[in-house]
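In the previous chapter we treated chains in isolation. Here, by contrast, the input contains two separate entities that must be folded as one system, with a combined length of 611 residues.
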Amino acid sequence: MSDFAKIIKKRKREDLIFNIIGISCTLVGIVTLGALIVDLLIDGLPRLDWQFFTSYPSRFPDKAGILSAWVGTLLVMLVTAVTAVPLGVAAGIYLEEYAPKNWLTSLIEINIANLAGVPSIIYGLMALGLLVYQLHLGQSILTGGITLSFLILPIVIVATREALRTIPQGIREAALALGSTNWQVVRYHLLPYSTGGILTGVIIALSRAIGETAPLVTIGALTFIAFLPPSPIQNQPPYVSFDWLWSPFSVLPIQMFNWVSRPDREFAVNAAGAGLALITVTLTLNAAAIYIRYRMRKKITW
Amino acid sequence: MDPAIERTKLSEFWDSEQFIRIKERIIESLLFLAAFFSIIITLGIFGTLVYESLTFFSRVSLITFLTDTLWTPLFYPPRFGILPLVTGTLVTTGIALAIALPIGSIVAIYLSEFAPRAVREFLKPVLELLSAVPTVVYGYFALLFVAPLLQKFIPDLPTFSMLSAGIVMGIMIIPYVSSLSEDAMRAVPMSLRESAYALGANRIITAVKVVYPAALSGIIASYILAVSRALGETMIVAIAAGMQPNLTLDPREPAATITAFIVQVSLGDLPHGSIGYQSIFAAGLTLFLMTLIFNVVGFYLRKRYRETY
């Protein structure tokens, strides 16, 4: 065999070896994810029954449930979505479509990039010092929802900007040429065309917020709640009540944390059950986001 | 006046150029306020941390804080040396990075330079699901699955250890590194790879010697994100690394991180304004400054290695 053929053979072998290394490294992540899901299923699946979803936490492991936790998660997410989505989308629209190129705009942009890197527990400390004790919002669903909405704001803003950026400039120019005002361009063209992209970002952001534990522990969300917040719908006029905003609360990840950190191993089964419920929600949301993104890419051709 | 006429006048007003102009101004101002709100959040974070820490440092001297080797703010007599929490944070972060940076980079090289298109389109979102798992679930996994598994290889490993927490944290961070690095590497122009192939390089040499350096700026950004995530990660270490402050660099021992300490204090019922309450803000400020330092260093490294085509 000539030297040249030998070198080619050696080079090809190197590529093959790296191919194997690359696949194995990718598998590390995927196998871990698989092991985690299987581990949760084995421990937690037998625990998931009607009683588990309709019971309050209890000191007896087999009587305990996640009723107050999932209701809390639902209500906190409601506050988070209602505050973070309009604020984040509006900020994204301003930065992408309106903002002049000046120092203030670049300051805001750098700031948003930095906020995305601030550890979530720091948001919790800020909420504890500012919202709970300075603004006297209490250790309530309202405070929890606002804290998480601050946390996911950068994700919503970045997603909105990216969705707007994919719309060709010609669309804006055509609408302006027909006499639209800036807002009309946004309202009747850019927003409808970017809904898919914004929605994907919002779903990813909310799924991140659902799993967040640390900031809510910091503001003083409780680990043992044996009651539900007052119902938002009343049977007497005015039929709607916002008292629930001020109610103390627990959420699914905090309930799970509480069960994991008990020395009594019988509670670990409950933790697995809560984890399973939690992971089902977040993985479903992420799958939905991936699906929407996929559909969008196929449907839209400019 | 006739109501019909009044209605016409009103609609004339709604459609008038003057009103539309005012409306446009109002909308633009509202959108600006939304964008500006992010600055208020930053000011809120920084202001709260500094304000509460200042009261803390009026009671505990900065030198004690930085040099004392014991952190027992809730015991009597209280000691306020942040060092044990800092070593706990750095050791768990170090373990996580030792796993996430090499594996994440190799995955990025594989996905960007080796994997067929269909494989990449499938693997990338699946890997990203790793970051969709709530960290409290990872904590459960580290304590009840990984720790017992590790004990089979290291018999005297305690149930709570920085090792098991760090390993799980590292795997959680892999997609942050791999996704961003892969994006950066795919943005490298094809002509660079073709030049390398023309000179007789194979794929792996091209990837390591040409594509990786060319994409270094973006890759460093992904590394910095990984460092920030690892430093600030809370639930995995709070559950699996133990909550006892411990001045050690041995990963096999249990230790508390800054974040775990904040969680531990928050779980109890500390009165507002007590020294224990203020100590979590001082700890939080330390963590905030540590992340800030890494981000600033990263910013300069990125600038230094930026390539333009």
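Chain B has two domains: 3-59, 83-305. The mean pLDDT of chain B is 89. Compare these points with the single-chain example from earlier in the chapter.
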